[in-house]
Design goal:
172 residues, mainly alpha, Four Helix Bundle (Hemerythrin (Met), subunit A)
Length: 172
């Protein structure tokens, strides 16, 4: 790994490992449970949503968006103001193992993309929804893979508390 990106990559790795730990003891049938209002982003949706975030981030780095269309439709939302809530039909979702397998694949693709980029390349401009706040590729990376990711793993941590599951962060 490049020395100039090591700190950033360590944070991406931590977020990924924390997400894996947050769901490792969640039973398959619990993956779409919504325990209370405000906790609608159940684990299946959250993992799938972060898979689409990986895909969009990889695309912003010049890679291919390789998320299947049906997953894109099920998991991608447009953020605040998007009135859609995650589907509660268990049969609509891939199984937990399939979600985690694709999450790992996207994680590895992102790390590979990062290993091939210089800081100069990451400082190139990019046009997207939040360009006024995050105008460069590296800004997109920080937002999507640290801030956005952390928002969703925090939702899963709250979901775990509502489900009366033990602290995951305590295990790391």
């Amino acid at each position: 790994m490049k020395n100039d990106l090591n700190s950033f990559i360590r944070q991406i790795e931590f977020n990924y490992l924390y997400l894996i730990d947050l769901v490792k003891d969640v039973e398959e049938k619990q993956m779409i449970v919504t325990p209370a209002k405000g906790l609608e982003n159940h684990p299946s949706f959250t993992i799938g949503h972060l898979i689409t975030a990986y895909g969009m981030t990889i695309k912003s780095l010049g890679g291919e968006y390789s998320i299947p269309k049906e997953w894109d439709e099920l998991f991608r939302r447009k953020g605040p103001g998007d009135p859609r809530l995650p589907n509660l039909d268990f049969n609509k979702y891939p199984c937990k193992n399939d979600l985690l397998k694709v999450l790992e694949q996207q994680h590895e693709i992102l790390l590979d993309c990062l290993n091939k980029k210089s800081l100069n390349q990451l400082n190139e401009s990019v046009t997207w929804r939040f360009s006024s706040y995050f105008p460069k590729k590296i800004d997109v990376l920080y937002f999507m893979m640290i801030n956005h990711y952390a928002m969703h793993i925090s939702q899963l941590a709250a979901w775990r508390r509502a489900m009366d599951l033990p602290s995951s962060l305590n295990r790391l």
